[in-house]
Amino acid sequence: MNSLLDRLRSGDTTLWPKGNVAANRLGWLTVVERMRAEADDLQSWAATIEHAKVVLLGMGGSSLGPEVLRSFAGSDRLVVLDTTDPRTIAGVELNDAFFLVSSKSGGTIEVQTLLAHAWSKVPDGSRYAAITDPSTALGDLARERSFARVFENPADIGGRYSVLSYFGLVPAALLGYDVAALCERAIDVDAEEAVALGDAMAHAAKDGQDKVTIRTAPSSAAFGLWVEQLVAESTGKQGKGCVPVPTTEAELGDDRFNVSVTIGDALDLGAEFMRWEIATAIAGHVLAIDPFDEPNVTESKENTKHVLADLPIPEAELADPSGTFEWLAATVDDGDYVSIQAYLPFGQDDALESLRRRVRERLGGAAVTAGYGPRFLHSTGQLHKGGANNVVAVQIVPPRPTAKVDIPGFPYDFGTLIAAQAAGDHQSLLDHDRRVLRVGADHLQEIN
Hints:
The protein is an alpha/beta fold.
């Protein structure tokens, strides 16, 4: 194991197949040392932000790490807005908010539209900060509008590996974390154990145990959001992959590889983030895939653009939600997993987890994952299209928009955008011959 760790730490890109993008994606290995040196500055700046709420506008790697940090801090000061659902957006209080606009590329459609919405309500640059890569349109716009600060992240860090960079640690500072201590926990991680985890996880997947059951305590359940994205988007490609199944219960099966995650306090997240980043990079080596690219993520984005280019969107053909379990029973085979994809308003977390468990039990313990759309398009969506064809997807969309929220400067509203995203991903799944059912429901309790 030491040789793999040494090669990783030295930036040896031959760990992964020829043509990989690792040469521009290994900054996460050392950025934590830079962040530790900047911890006092981050916390001093954060102390100047006196607004009651901090609203983070982001998606994928820019949002899931901060959401985990928020949950462990037990704070409702940070609101992570990573959806295009109009009812959720309309429900966020903006009167005394500071906005953190977070996007690596600066061109993510969700962040662009959310910023357009927020700016139409609060056109005051002093109440905004941006986190982005150097030389992005977002950085230029932030300077043009005199944002309070622009944090330029190192460009050699991919979104899902960025939680220990500005993308995670600026929100952490605003939440009151001891940023230096968080970084020190990451630096002190048992890296050899992390390598062993990645090696075992990937070899298990090659032997048919491709469902990585990641069990946490109920109080640590939010960690599953971040680790699910990291593992799924990194390994799910070329018909291979580890299928992460976050859970707070024991889940057993012949296709399961079980990992228990114990997080003692919020600062332990530093070590756990680094542990899984190392493990996932090593898993990519064992699976002979590039853990730093995302070749199938753009498909749904392009399909969304096609849908939006021909408005109005045709009314979707939706199945009756009362037939969902019957369809699943007839469709799911041994070795499959079910992906529940809820394009619904936030706030139904308990109902979503309840549905996940009910499907699992009705299918005799089969692996079941669940998440909100469009959030998962930037995480597990890569696995659904690029991994093995053992996913059975249930896409849940409301029969009508949940609210009316316009997007200034765009020829559509948020209801139209999320409908286009659902339609675009549905088409992408079909293009890969995936089994998918579209059902119409306003609430998850309607699924049976």
